[in-house]
Design brief:
Layout: E1 3-6, E2 12-16, H1 18-26, E3 30-34, E4 39-42, E5 53-58, E6 63-72, E7 75-85, H2 88-109, H3 128-147, E8 150-156, H4 162-166, H5 183-192, E9 207-211, E10 226-230, H6 231-237, H7 242-248, H8 256-266, H9 271-288, E11 294-297, H10 299-309, H11 315-320, E12 327-329, E13 335-340, E14 349-351, E15 357-360, E16 366-367, E17 370-371, E18 375-380, E19 387-394, E20 400-405, E21 408-414, E22 418-422, E23 427-432, H12 435-446
Amino acid sequence: MSVFLLDKNKSPLMPCSEKRARLLLARGRAVVVRVYPFAIRLKDRIGGAVQPVRVKIDPGSKTTGIAVVRENGQKQHVLALMELIHRGRQISKSLEQRRAFRRRRRNQLRYREPRFLNRTKPKGWLAPSLQHRVDTTRCLVNRLQSLVPVIAISQELVRFDTQKMENPEISGVEYQQGTLLGYEIREYLLEKWGRECAYCGEKDTPLQIEHIDPKANGGSNRISNLTLACDPCNKEKGRQSLVAFFSTSKRLKKHQPRMDRVLRQCKKPLRDASAVNATRWALYQALKGTGLPVEVATGGRTKFNRNRLSIPKTHALDAACVGDVDQVCGWERPTLNIKANGRGSYQRTRLTKYGFPRGYLMRQKHVQGFQTGDMVKAVVPKGAKAGTWLGRVAVRKTGSFNVQTLSGAIQGISYKHCTVTQRADGYGYHIQTNDKKEEGARENKSC
């Protein structure tokens, strides 16, 4: 990943290589501004020549891919890849729990008549779990604007037609026309079924869209009746029902539990597709609020570009393929995973499943200048935990902290041995190596 570079006045310059960043730091010409994403500030330079840089976004329900690219005509060079992991479902569960607590308190103390006609929602209101996706993406774009000279934004404005998915009789025409025919629906099925054959579990083979209840027997085209199957399974199943296929197939006698999985999975709700549909225009308006021109493109075009350029399937690399792309260079680089963890909890009491208190938390967030979520460097000179530990700290009132490293949690480290490298900002960071991308490349070839 390229190192973001700022001048003496904290204005963004073009990112530099890791080797040059090490030399600048070693010679005392620069200081570290951020650890994730890594950024340094020059002490002896003001201003400089910059090139056009674009931030490209592939929105998702659970993970949003972000790519920072340098433009040179239709040729784009990837500077940084990031994947932002949302916590929308966690917010929904917290709100459900809070609602249950409030209802219990109100019913326990006194009776109060229900109020439901005096609450109005402003225009453009989104549920907190959906608004979170928009806010975190906008926050990361704003941060990138302060670290790199961004001139434009590209967003994938994908839309899942859930009404046509559930009721194909609305129109007799096909979903798409032209070279991008069927890309949105196929992409949804690949994500839903884990990019493998739903019947035998084969991964390294071309997959075909298959009707669970065959159309010859009256099956519909709705998304709940579609799955993915390899060519042998698709041909062997033919016009048989799912139960008859698993009971008569000699190859799938050992895969009998997969029949129950297919029946459960095909009825899975369209929650993720609905979340993307509900937030796509809100995210577009939020990105326009940055003052930068925003380019939009379809999900079908993104996949068309990715297949044409033989780029593996990841959220971040999907973002690099958004929009008008002729060539993408430098995509073989690590990806920075950014997970939204929140800034703590207002709840100071831990409860049992029956609602009774089982533990109490500290009333203050800071202990000896540290708070939970800070990135620290702990240098322990002696003892069983001697060594240098880098990771996220969890504070205790006693001053004995836990440091979460890549190899696990190191417990009982004194605050005297810790130094803050980056303050908590509500996110967790992890650099993903290329191993998973190579695995994604193999999956991409099979699909």
